[in-house]
Write a structure and sequence with these properties.
The structure is a homodimer. By secondary structure, chain A is an alpha/beta fold. The first copy, chain A, folds into 2 domains: 193 residues, Isopropylmalate Dehydrogenase, CATH 3.40.718.10; 140 residues, 3-Layer(aba) Sandwich (Isopropylmalate Dehydrogenase). In chain A, 41% of the residues lie in helices and 21% in strands. Chain A has 11 helices and 12 strands. The first copy, chain A, has a 10-stranded mixed sheet, sandwiched between helices. In chain A, helix 1 packs parallel to helix 11 and helix 10 packs across helix 11. At the A-B interface, helix 4, strand 6, strand 7, helix 5 and helix 6 of A face helix 4, strand 6, strand 7, helix 5 and helix 6 of B. The complex binds 3-isopropylmalic acid (IPM) (2 copies). One 3-isopropylmalic acid sits at the interface of chains A and B.
Chain lengths: 346, 346
């Protein structure tokens, strides 16, 4: 389409700083005939303290009318744990049925990895985004007493599991290696595990070219550091995906580079793109935040909206920028944004 | 005590092979005046296929009368996922109230780590062993249909959380660095997270010398590979502990070295010691299994029973053996057992 109506939620901590750079690169990469209309939403800790509001219904309804959402980061130590995460970030993922939480991991040449030997890493995690232990089911009985019982319920449906598994097969099928690994813990979580595994096996029969593999989540973390090159596409539940993608980010140059898309493949709702990192309140305002993860999330956003050439230009710019960083003095958030904006226009 | 009544459950896959070496080293290290009585229990896949039995009540009752249990590994591809794990391994942990699942991680000099720069790693994970997502609560509705709903319930009690948190503070207090990190995901799993965090904070007031820290489980996996030296004692729930300790094993020389104790600190039931690794059916019978994790589990067992000097002798023998391995030809399971048995007597 020749216009992009973008909702922007800078959010908390470094969110605002990195989103500014994402928008800078987005404006720079877009051809002049694509009209970019951005609308900023003031949501997060500041708003919560000022008005008590987290995500009012009117704003949720309004967000729906955009082509996509760019989000910085949500969460602040001044707000009790979970209030903003569940009331805002997860509420958006659930309300807009972002059932594919897509998180690519690639070790670019020249970037730092804690792993010896610099393995060849290039995989993508398809994390389920609307079910599992993230549903908010659960509760607490006799709270705060010596007899408290607190529960958390992981909810998994045939619909929810099948659609994300199918999406993952499609992605695996489209990649050169055509390999899909299911990660779960079906030797302990037998009910959910059985649903995931049987769905994985059944849908797999429709994709005879895709090689499949199953790993328990604990074993998957081992391979992530000893043999990450074995992964091509991983499909997993919401919580295991959360854990694995932070670890994946750590081994592929750090959380400063990890992009993500919360995708509603049906197109009924806008998809939302955000860096995997959090609001990092400890470095907010210092100019130390690396905006690259947000810029790469903008590339995912562009690809999702059909602007493949522009997405690729951003990714090339990031790869070149990372290669050029070697030994150079550290830059500010703004300087990195400038460097990337320059490269995509160059 | 001058006698040890030991129950031995070799179990599946490489379990039998590594347990044989553990017993070899145990016999070698014990002074002649300590009487060792072992009783072997035939439990696992073979027994299940032969008789349909997993853990009969009579055997559970009989196991109770031992001072400790040495277990090899449980799980076999010929048995549906979860049947042996839940019916045997987890049943023992739950029946014998093994609420402290203790898993030390130490990077010995000279051992292989996938991490560049060989960080200084020496921490212990206190994993809760009798609650959380491991309780077997949950179920499936409309199983196998397009309308299936499968749930898993994490159950956390004030009693269960407090006793393991207290145990972790005691361990942190006794270590030179006196640092305790709680790992959870209290921004999403708010009910369980609130119980864990408030218990952690409240009990912590009784241990003013212990420095405390909180990490979300996803962030903890990052630090495990980028800054593992920051950890001293970690306390966490059953599932997060499962995941973190496999990752910890991977970064500290691999799963071939990781020992564990399923401890009932109250002494009401025998504690159970086992390598963290699984039954590894792919290498069973090849002589490739490294029995070191089992031998180190034997050291934990001896320490638990008050044989500190013998425990330390085994740990020294392992450290020396690892140092001597450098560049040497690979050994069989049996040869490694022999080498360790020789060192503890030498
Ligand atoms: C902030 C938090 C709720 C979130 C999650 O757990 O999904 C984050 O860790 C992520 O991975 O996007
Ligand atoms: C085999 C399995 C049930 C077990 C667990 O999940 O606890 C294992 O992974 C472990 O860590 O001891």
């Amino acid at each position: 389409s020749r216009s992009i109506r973008l909702a922007v939620i800078p959010g908390d901590g470094i969110g605002r700083e990195v989103v500014a750079q994402g928008l800078k690169v987005l404006s720079a990469v877009l051809p002049s005939d694509v009209k970019l209309e951005t609308e900023e939403y003031d949501l997060g800790a500041r708003r919560y303290h000022a008005t008590g509001e987290i995500l009012p219904d009117a704003e949720l309804a309004s967000l729906k009318h955009h082509d996509a959402i760019l989000l910085g980061a949500i969460g602040d130590p001044s707000v009790p744990a979970g209030v903003l995460e569940r009331g805002l970030l997860l509420k958006l993922r659930f309300a807009f049925d972002h059932y594919v939480n897509l998180r690519p991991s690639k070790l670019f040449p020249n970037t730092a990895t804690p792993l010896a030997g610099r393995p060849d890493i290039d995989f993508v995690v398809v994390r389920e985004g609307t079910e599992g232990p993230y549903t908010g089911n659960g509760g607490s009985l006799r709270t705060g007493t010596p007899h408290e019982v607190a529960t958390e319920v992981s909810v998994n449906t045939a619909l929810g599991v099948e659609r994300v598994v199918r999406d993952a097969y499609e992605r695996a099928q489209a990649r050169p290696r055509k390999k899909l690994t299911l990660v779960h813990k079906n030797n302990v979580l037998v009910y959910a595990g059985q649903l995931w595994k049987s769905t994985f096996d059944r849908v797999g029969r429709e994709y005879p070219e895709v090689t499949t593999d199953y790993l328990h989540v604990d074993a998957a973390t081992i391979f992530m550091v000893t043999q990450p090159e074995r992964f091509d596409v991983i499909v997993t539940d919401n919580l295991f995906g959360d854990i694995l993608t932070d670890l994946a980010a750590a081994v592929t140059g750090g959380i400063g580079l990890a992009a993500s898309g919360n995708i509603n493949p049906d197109g009924a709702f806008p998809s939302m793109f955000e860096p995997v990192h959090g609001s990092a309140p400890d470095i907010a305002g210092t100019g130390k935040a690396d905006p690259t993860a947000t810029v790469l999330s903008v590339a995912m956003l562009l690809r999702h909206l059909g602007h493949e050439a522009e997405a690729a230009r951003i990714e090339t710019a990031v790869a070149e920028d990372l290669a050029a960083r070697d030994g150079a003095a550290p830059r500010t958030t703004d300087e990195t944004g400038d460097a990337l904006a320059l490269r995509v226009t160059g």
